[in-house]
């Protein structure tokens, strides 16, 4: 496959190097365009008011990999690659492997997911990969799964362009429970700002916060037993009803299909009953 890879951790991050080198060694044609520094949590920001620069990176990657360091955001990187740096559009856009999970509502802030989303906007199937740990350095499990996923997509392409948001548990391969196709869950933050004073006496604020997940959800084993006893539903069907936040806790690799259309269908239907005539008509 002709593969474009980006990220938000930067061109020298271990995650993107592991992913790109592993796929290049497997015979894929790999192009890497990443920010020249970490740009996590930049969302889908674009650079509009100053130039974007791209420098070729000749070290750090497999000899067959073409790599650039870009001065812009993750979304800039993918746009620049598609319309300026690559001779033709890739078969797929990959983003990551991110250092830290992108679960639930994280995806609204994530530069990793936004880079992949930029590919989807251009009609290219895209996948965002994240390792669910900020401390683990074992990106090889994610790279191995990326190869498995590309093999599957080669045999059975997606019926329509979509973004697959993949989170990898930070455990040894033998501890992974399986692959779960999940819904987007809830993972928001109780944000606080720490007020500080710099050496010149000026006040500044540092964003901190505590994550708030779906802590009230029942345990997976309980759900399996209850569902099997009540309705004889097998575990494969049950896993499809889990959210990404729930499944990752039980060491499942999560795959959540995403789209950029944020229209609330049920809300649109509800609004049809509103009587909002234009004034004076």
Written description of the protein model:
This protein is an alpha/beta fold. It is built from eight helices and eleven strands. It has helices spanning 14-25, 74-85, 111-121, 140-155, 220-231, 235-239, 244-249, 265-271; strands at 2-6, 29-35, 54-56, 66-70, 92-99, 126-131, 163-168, 178-181, 187-197, 203-213, 252-258. Helix 1 packs across helix 4 and helix 2 (74-85) packs parallel to helix 3. The longest helix is centred in the middle third of the chain and has 16 residues, at 140-155.
Concise account of the structure shown:
The chain contains eight helices and eleven strands. It is α/β, with parallel strands linked by helices and 281 residues long.
Q: Which residue ranges are poorly predicted, with pLDDT under 50 across at least 5 consecutive positions? A: 215-233
Q: How much of the sequence is in beta strands?
A: 25-35%
Q: Please, what is the oligomeric state? A: single chain
Return Rg in Å. 21 Å
For the secondary structure, the number of strands is 11
The CATH topology comes to Stationary-phase Survival Protein Sure Homolog, Chain: A
- Kindly name the structural category: alpha/beta
Overall number of domains? 1
Portion of residues in helices?
A: 25-40%
Distance between the termini: 58 Å
CATH architecture: 3-Layer(aba) Sandwich
List the secondary-structure elements in sequence, H or E.
EHEEEHEHEHEEEEHHHEH
CATH class: Alpha Beta
Main beta sheet: 9 strands, mixed
- Shape estimate: globular
Number of helical segments with 4 or more residues = 8
Q: Overall pLDDT, averaged? A: 87
Order of strands in the sheet with the most strands? 3-4-2-1-5-6-7-11-8
């Amino acid at each position: 496959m002709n593969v474009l890879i980006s990220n938000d951790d930067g061109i020298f991050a271990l995650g993107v190097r592991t992913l790109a080198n592993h796929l290049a060694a497997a015979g894929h044609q790999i192009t890497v365009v990443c920010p020249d520094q970490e740009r996590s949590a930049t969302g889908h920001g674009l650079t509009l008011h100053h130039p974007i620069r791209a420098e070729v990176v000749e070290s750090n990657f497999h000899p067959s990999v073409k790599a650039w360091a870009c001065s812009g955001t993750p979304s800039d990187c993918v746009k620049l690659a598609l319309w300026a740096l690559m001779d033709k559009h890739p078969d797929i856009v990959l983003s990551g492997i991110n250092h830290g999970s992108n679960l639930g509502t994280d995806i609204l802030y994530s530069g990793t997911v936004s880079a992949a989303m930029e590919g989807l906007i251009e009609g290219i199937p895209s996948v965002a990969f994240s390792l669910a740990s900020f401390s683990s350095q074992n990106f090889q499990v994610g790279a191995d799964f990326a190869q498995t996923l590309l093999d599957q997509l080669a045999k059975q392409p997606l019926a329509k362009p979509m973004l697959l948001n993949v989170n990898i548990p930070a455990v040894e391969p033998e501890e992974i429970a399986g692959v779960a196709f999940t819904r987007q869950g809830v993972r928001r933050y109780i944000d606080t700002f720490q007020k500080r004073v710099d050496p010149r006496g000026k006040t500044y604020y540092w964003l901190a916060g505590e994550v708030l997940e779906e802590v009230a959800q029942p345990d997976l084993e309980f759900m399996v037993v209850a569902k099997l006893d009540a309705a004889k539903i097998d575990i494969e069907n049950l896993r499809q009803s889990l959210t990404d936040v729930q499944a990752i806790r039980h060491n499942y690799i999560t795959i959540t299909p995403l789209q950029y259309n944020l229209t609330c269908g049920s809300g649109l239907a509800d609004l049809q009953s509103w009587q909002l005539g234009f004034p004076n008509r």
